[in-house]
UniProtKB/TrEMBL annotation, chain A:
Coiled-coil residues: none
Domain notes: Has an N-terminal Jag-N domain and 2 RNA-binding domains (KH and R3H).
Protein name: RNA-binding protein KhpB
Subcellular location: Cytoplasm
Stored PANTHER family: PROTEIN JAG, RNA-BINDING PROTEIN KHPB
Free-text function comment from the UniProt entry: A probable RNA chaperone. Forms a complex with KhpA which binds to cellular RNA and controls its expression. Plays a role in peptidoglycan (PG) homeostasis and cell length regulation.
Gene from which this protein is expressed: khpB
Organism (species): Bombilactobacillus thymidiniphilus
Automatic annotation (TrEMBL), chain B:
Name by which UniProt lists this protein: RNA-binding protein KhpA
Keyword Cell cycle assigned: no
Subunit composition and interactions: Forms a complex with KhpB.
Role according to the record: A probable RNA chaperone. Forms a complex with KhpB which binds to cellular RNA and controls its expression. Plays a role in peptidoglycan (PG) homeostasis and cell length regulation.
Organism listed in the record: Bombilactobacillus thymidiniphilus
Family, similarity comment: Belongs to the KhpA RNA-binding protein family.
Keywords: Cell shape, Cell wall biogenesis/degradation, Chaperone, Cytoplasm, RNA-binding
Compartments reported by the entry: Cytoplasm
Gene from which the chain derives: khpA
Pfam families noted in UniProt: KH_KhpA-B
Length: 220, 81
């Protein structure tokens, strides 16, 4: 038994962690007794907690190094792609802010892989992110890309939003854009943020959020 | 003999699950579509379905996109045991 005392539960845990020389994620905490302040110091009781190291699968997974995790993520994606019958190669590219996985494939298959407005590749990205989360790879977001798709999409969104914004100014009527994921909405927001003649708002709930561009006089 | 769709579902789902041996895929014919019933343990269901069905929807999108048989639609049900 590894029990520790402290004025509050938090303090007891902190003291225990210090003595055991571990971090909060690596132990399970059982509260034996909650602390009590009492009245004017009478009846004060210190909190007692019991700390036990966790020896679960999670812990083992956390210990596998980031490089192993990346290799596993890469294998996972390669396996999924292999079932579809095309032998695509996956190239890992670790960057400061994200882990980029680039799928290399033949040109005529690329459009199937991407889907309409990136529907398929975004779905695949969600699945791979979920897998990475299971592995305990949580430091960086994972982005899937194939043949510069993300860059092309960004350019397309920028020109689309500029065009729509001009249209709103000319007609003084609001324009509703198609639902798109947060990343793409962000690109449009950033593109239009400097403009004083229009306002951009997000409408909708859940996964189907869409942007509305309005002329400025309707803002409110 | 697994069809390519079953293989694809397995390739996606098996690494995500903890209770890998409990995963079972059955197929049945419905009016005009082929239904894949994916049985997973209740413990894994949360991960495979995700928050607001985000992961489940992603799996469906990927699986449906690989259905090259234009005469027959397919469906994927996720059933926690």
């Amino acid at each position: 038994m590894t029990q520790f005392q402290g004025a509050t539960i938090q303090k007891a845990i902190a003291r225990g962690l210090e003595e055991l020389n571990t971090s909060r994620e690596q132990v399970s905490v059982d509260v034996i007794r909650e602390g009590r302040n009492g009245f004017l110091g009478f009846g004060r009781k210190s909190a007692i907690v019991d700390l036990n190291p966790i020896e679960s699968v999670q812990n083992i997974l956390q210990e596998t190094s980031a490089t192993e995790q990346i290799a596993k993520i890469k294998d996972y994606l390669t396996d999924i792609l292999a079932v579809t019958g095309r032998s695509e190669a996956v190239e890992c590219n670790q960057q400061a802010d994200s882990l980029k996985l680039d799928i290399i494939t033949v040109d005529d298959y690329q459009s199937y892989l991407i889907g309409k407005h990136g529907k398929n590749i975004n779905a695949l990205q969600t699945i791979v992110q979920e897998y990475a989360y299971c592995l305990g790879f949580r430091e960086q977001p994972i982005l899937l890309d194939t043949g510069d798709y993300r860059k092309r999409r960004q350019e397309a969104l920028i020109s689309l939003s500029t065009f729509k914004a001009d249209q709103v100014c000319a007609t003084k009527k609001a324009v509703y854009l198609d639902p798109m994921p947060a990343v793409e909405r962000k690109i449009i927001y950033q593109n239009l943020q400097g403009r004083q003649d229009i306002t951009v708002r997000t409408h909708g709930r859940g996964l189907d959020k869409y942007l509305v561009i309005r002329p400025f006089r309707h803002a409110g | 003999m697994d069809s390519s769709i079953v293989k694809l579902i397995k390739a996606i789902v098996v690494p995500l699950a903890d209770n890998k041996e409990q995963i079972e895929i059955t197929t049945e014919m419905n009016d005009d579509c082929l239904v894949y019933n994916l049985h997973v343990s209740a413990a894994d269901a949360g991960r495979i379905i995700g928050k607001h069905g985000r992961v489940a929807q992603a799996i469906r999108t990927v699986v449906y996109s690989q259905n090259h048989n234009n005469d027959q639609r397919i469906k994927l049900n996720i059933i926690p045991e």
